[in-house]
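haha ok so turns out i had the wrong file open the whole time. this is the CORRECT one, sorry everyone. sequence first:
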Amino acid sequence: MKPTLLIMAAGMGSRFGGLKQVEPVGLSGEAVIDYSIYDAIRAGFGKVVCIIRENFAEAFKDKFNAKLKGKIDVEYVFQELDSLPEGFTLPEGREKPWGTAHAVLVAKSVINEPFCAINADDFYGLNAYKVMAEFLKNYNKSGQFSMVGYYLRNTLSDFGSVSRGICSVDKNSNLVKIVEATKILKRDSKIISVEENGSEILLTGNEIVSMNMWGFTPSIFETLEKKFTNFLKTEINKPKSEMYIPSVVFEMIQEKTATVKVLEANSPWFGITYQEDKPIVVEKIRSLTANGEYPERLF
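then structure:
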């Protein structure tokens, strides 16, 4: 059974200032998401599921349906603010999505096979998809998950803070702990994590971080349902509170209901968080194309 690629593309792009999921960066107007799909096809994925907001569904379908027809199956699911379990009502004034764990949960109805979940605006590299596809095809037992790890120093923006899941692994490359740092930034020649209380932690840059490239089996959905319901009981009236995939995975590791293999891909990672990041991404893709790793037109 071929694995599925689940693309989380429902974020509003508040720091970027627009719909960055379809922002052109390639030589023929491709977005980062096009390179993700292209690499997933080459790595052996059989289906793409895009998590989007309903108000930009037509923009997505216009961009992807025709050019992907016959190359890979495509489905869409909507992550809306009112996509809540029975018994919960959307609080007045809520504008922020409920987070990446909620995003994965809304795809429950269309995924019945092992799958890889990624961010729409992150470039992960072909080898990352290859090692992930290999894992999903061969290690697909319930609760046996994976993630592709990257060095923190290679994942920062020069133009503002980023959120990263900082990982600890054991000697067998299994994830032991993951801590969500929501404000990591460069300051002079240092890398700083600013905590919620305003305190600062100095980082080395050699930390392994999760860039939200996760390998799951469908067993994750039942856990997400339970944990999202519990999350809402205490957090529903906090307008900026989100439920993150790394936090859920860490809880499952603590509860001994999941193991997570940290995969090494040796692939480049880059992404668009701010408008100022775009020229850097454009140049990196241009360089990869010039080196023959991608054609000038993907599809």
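Residues 183 and 195 are 7 Å apart (CA to CA).
again sry for the mixup
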